[in-house]
Design a protein that fits this description.
Number of strands: 9
Shape: globular
Distance between the termini: 65 Å
Number of helices: 9
Low-confidence stretches: 95-117, 135-152
Strand content: 5-15%
Length: 306
């Protein structure tokens, strides 16, 4: 027996199901950026952070959420579309917590996102290996890429290659990251372990790959085909402006490992800070200020800030 559920309750059920699936509440701009990236990573479809903010009530909602957007959100938690999500919700009526918990789709997705035991065990093993074994600091052979690494001092040098972010994040004590492309360095405010993708379809991380990117120009551009050009331009401008002022406020440094620069691996490029003269609210130019990173003595990084 199915029971008609008010539309706003269905919206709330969808919000809660997504939050449960990704393991975090949508409360800050970083949360919505994270969710937008997660949706794109899984579905290769774009929902802008601003659209997500309006759906969660973080920004004023001037119109109803498009069915096409609701379809993407429902597909993110493994439903065929929004109608399928509504049908199942009506078949399992009850309070919000029961409705979310009753869905086998949500439970399945949650398992895939968390896998807590295996992830934590694996991360712990990686930390122990990082302390007792210098293998992970050894670059893989690759033509034209530097393989010079100071093993005795645990110094990373520009050109060193890692097959996966799981090979370098544990070296910095990062074992339970919420995402891998933008990880705060533990105990060092305003320093980020950055893992951009070269020529990302939305984040245009551009640089001279032949010189291992002495500068990286970063800007975001909406790829949402469901919105008109004026709204796309507004979202693009809003997000780049938010990024610029956030970076300026925190005087951010980025320890950078770039994916797809030479192949599908991650290449360590060095430590970067903003080029104040060439950055503005439309884009940020990151300049490399160190080709090495001594992971055994990270306090020196503070000297590299503006």
């Amino acid at each position: 027996m199915s029971i008609m559920i008010p539309q706003e309750q269905l919206f709330e059920n969808l919000r809660l199901a997504i939050e449960e699936a990704v393991g975090r509440k949508m409360k800050t701009p970083r949360d919505f950026d994270f969710l937008a990236e997660a949706i794109f990573e899984k579905l290769h479809q774009s929902v802008s952070p601003s659209t997500l903010k309006r759906f969660w009530g973080y920004l004023p909602q001037y119109s109803t959420t498009r069915t096409s957007t609701l379809d993407i959100l429902a597909q993110f938690i493994d439903y065929e579309d929004w109608d399928a999500f509504c049908r199942e919700a009506e078949q399992y009526p009850g309070d919000t917590e029961q409705t979310v918990s009753a869905s086998p789709h949500t439970i399945s997705l949650q398992r895939r996102w968390y896998r807590p035991t295996l992830i934590y065990i694996y991360a712990a093993i990686m930390v122990l290996l990082a302390v007792g074994c210098i293998y992970m600091l050894r670059p893989h052979a690759d033509a034209g890429v530097s393989k010079d690494t100071d093993h005795s001092n645990h110094v990373l040098r520009a050109g060193q290659i890692f097959e996966s972010y799981n090979d370098y994040l544990p070296l910095f004590g990062v074992t339970n990251q919420e995402n891998f492309w933008d990880c705060p360095l533990p105990h060092h405010e305003g320093i980020i372990i950055w893992s951009p993708e070269y020529h990302h379809p939305q984040w245009h991380n551009e640089g001279d790959r032949d010189s291992l990117c002495p500068t990286i120009t970063e800007w975001w551009e909406s790829a949402d085909s469901l919105i008109d050009s004026r709204e796309r331009e507004l979202l693009t401008s809003e997000r780049n402006e938010h990024l610029y002022f956030t970076v300026m406020r925190t005087n951010e440094l980025r320890i950078t490992f770039m994916k797809n620069l030479t192949d599908t691996n991650y290449v360590f490029l060095g430590v970067y800070r903003t080029d104040l003269d060439r950055s503005d609210s439309t884009h940020i130019v990151w300049e490399r200020v160190a080709k090495e990173c001594d992971i055994a003595n990270l306090a020196y990084l503070e000297q590299l800030r503006h």
